[in-house]
Amino acid sequence: MNSTLTSQVKEVASNQRNIGHALLDNGKVSVEDVENILKLQHEQGLRFGDAAIKLGLVNNSDILQALAQQFDHAWLPANSEAVAPELVAAIQPDSPVVESLRLLRSQLTLRWFSKHKSIVITSPSEGQGASHIAANLAVMFAQLGQRTLLIDADLRNPRQHTMFRLPSNPGLSDILAGRANIQVIHLVDALKNLFVLTAGTIPPNPLELLSRPVMPEFLNNMANQFDVIIIDSPPALSCADAQTLSAWIGGTVVVTRRHHTKLADVDAVKQQLTIAGAELVGAVLNDY
Question: Which residues pair with 282 in a beta bridge?
Answer without folding.
Answer: 253
